[in-house]
Amino acid sequence: MFISAVQIQKTIIQKKMRSTAKTVFLFIGLTIIATACQEEKTPPAFTPMETASLIPQPVETTQGQGYFEIDEETQILVEGEDPEMKKAVDFLEGMIAKASGFTLQEPSGNSNAMENIIVLKLDDPTGSASAEAYTLDINEKRIQVSSAGPAGIYYGIQTLRQLLPASIEKDSTSSTRLGIGAGVIKDEPRFAYRGSMLDVSRHFFSKEDVKRYIDLITPYKLNHLHLHLSDDQGWRIEIKSWPELTTKGGSTEVGGGDGGYYTQEDYKEIVQYAAAHFITVVPEIDMPGHTNAALASYPELNCDDKAPELYTGIEVGFSSFCVGKPITYKFIDDVVREISAITPGKYFHAGGDESHATQKDDYIKFVDSVQKIVSRHDKVMIGWDEIQFATLDSTTVAQFWASAENANGAVSKGHKLLISPASKMYMDMKYDSLTPLGLKWAGYIEIDDAYNWDPATYVKGITDKDILGVEAPLWAETLETIDQVEQMVFPRILAYAEIAWSPSTSKDWESFKARVKNNYPRLENMGIDFYKSPKL
Ligand code: TNX
């Protein structure tokens, strides 16, 4: 049988049509499947709340069902008026934008009916709740952080940060989905003052270094940064009425390097950056000892009117202001006045340690006078524990670092204590005999030593109510770079943050050990050069 050319042509056309139809059906089919998939998105990976490695450990955690996912449509709503709330909101928005590229959306419509929303809610602050306590409530439809104060909202956000995937800590945005396990956290700090001290005198650290330090401690809910701004080796803050303090006194450091100093504008910038992270800067001018840099800058501050050489070694206890000269107090008044004027926090730290070159009677008279100057400039004085020998306002805080006798003396005179025992909390102590940096005069401090003690039982006779808080100092005789600072600080600061925040009843080394280990990827993503302890 013969098939005509026309027939052949028809068959080809029919076949083509069938295959086009097939393609169209296939396309429609795929589109339907794809749409269905979009509606029924696969759940993101998320860590169930009770297994999240939170540091510091919250007071109470109750795991819920399911998860919340932050995506490009997530909205943010702020309830309650307070200008400080902007800082918490900015932090949250910045964190999400950096992690994912998402901009949290303005809500539209009635907030109670809304889904996919983060609510930051300032509760009525007239209640008894601390402004740092918060509740973080996460379900499939919304995240709510509530607190009586903006600081509590900020701490709730820091907890939320630790519930999100570790990839959010990277500098660059990643495509990891932002799933957060549901549940409720009720949390509040044990101590009001949770601090760290950075010695910028023995070696100078730039204002960028200090800002990085603030970035690194803020996830752990610390709220004070004490800057040790003067010592024998360097004066690090501009005092306009005594300019040589920095031009001369700030011109070197341990080992003879170039040193450096903060202009008052730099200092204000640091203070503001800290405040944006709910951290209060506590400035310290150490006196009457630890003052060689000032004595070298101005001969008239010396009893014999002769300026000593600048000092670049690491001995302590050889310098003293001339306690009997009126100019000494004029000088101190100027320094405290200028620094206080640019310090919004209520504390001024006047040092007072290791004044071995000052007669005891002179020391007592001197500290009495300095305390009056500090009060006159509307600040509350903090001093190292030796200051308890003087007669002080009861509001003065003694920072216990070495002497249990001094700590008890201070408490018996009505002072609160800041707890910083060298043998437990000095982050410049080596971890063990192999640590290349640091000192060892107060012993080695491994991560378990840093964690396994309690501030309220460490000194006999002291209890929780005598304690304002805890502070982990970092002295910098052996530390020249911010990387070296990080090696000494991390992971020990995590132990101190937990001691400062979490109730003593929840102390559990095995749990802490596992949580720190689980935090390694976060520390790595933050670019922290940390010590990998064999104890973990
Ligand atoms: C003791 S602690 C000092 C500092 C040193 C530190 C070194 C204190 C109040 N004084 O001057 O830098 O030891 O660990």
Account of the 3D structure:
- The structure is a single chain.
- Helix 2 packs parallel to helix 3 and helix 8 (about 325-340) runs parallel beside helix 9 (about 360-375).
- Helix content is about 35%, strand content about 15%.
- It folds into 2 domains: about 50-185, Chitobiase/beta-hexosaminidase domain 2-like (Chitobiase, domain 2, 2-Layer Sandwich); about 195-525, TIM Barrel.
- The chain is elongated.
- Helix 10 (about 405-410) links the parallel strand 14 and strand 15 (about 415-420).
- It is of the alpha/beta class and about 525 residues long.
- The strands form 3 sheets. An 8-stranded parallel barrel has the order 7-8-11-12-13-14-15-16, surrounded by 7 helices.
- The chain contains 17 helices and 16 strands.
- The chain has helices spanning about 5-40, 85-100, 150-165, 205-215, 245, 265-275, 290-295, 325-340, 360-375, 405-410, 420-425, 445-450, 455-460, 480-490, 490-500, 510-520, 520-525, and strands spanning about 60-70, 75-80, 115-120, 135-140, 140-145, 180-185, 195-200, 225-230, 230, 235, 280-285, 345-350, 380-385, 395-400, 415-420, 465-475.
- The model is unreliable at about 1-15 and about 25-35 (pLDDT under 50).
- It starts with a helix and ends in an 11-residue tail after the last helix.
- The longest helix has about 35 residues, at about 5-40.
- Ligand TNX binds next to loops.
